[in-house]
Amino acid sequence: MRTGAIARIQGDMSVALATAYKTWAANPKPAFQDLREDFITRSEVAFRVAQGRFYLEVNDKIFSPLRPEVGQFAAATYQGSLDIQPSLPVMFQWRRNAWQAAADSLNS
What we know:
About 75% of the residues lie in helices and about 0% in strands. By secondary structure, the chain is mostly helical. It contains four helices and no strands.
């Protein structure tokens, strides 16, 4: 069973993207490919910022004796060293794949 982000991104994200674009009533409507920069590049920056803030929040909630930036680094290192998946790079690739599948379905 796939849950959460895995189910969403690998499951129905491409269908949701294509459906949202087809039913979007903007006039004039930009080409689907023109929206890729927002969906891929800009959102990846936002996800990285959110993850960094999440690590700061975790450090604060566990009453860590570490300075916030040290706790943030420790949390990121912990995730990387234990190979906790899905990592952001893996999810970014899944999102790129979903985008391409949506683009392919819109072009067919």
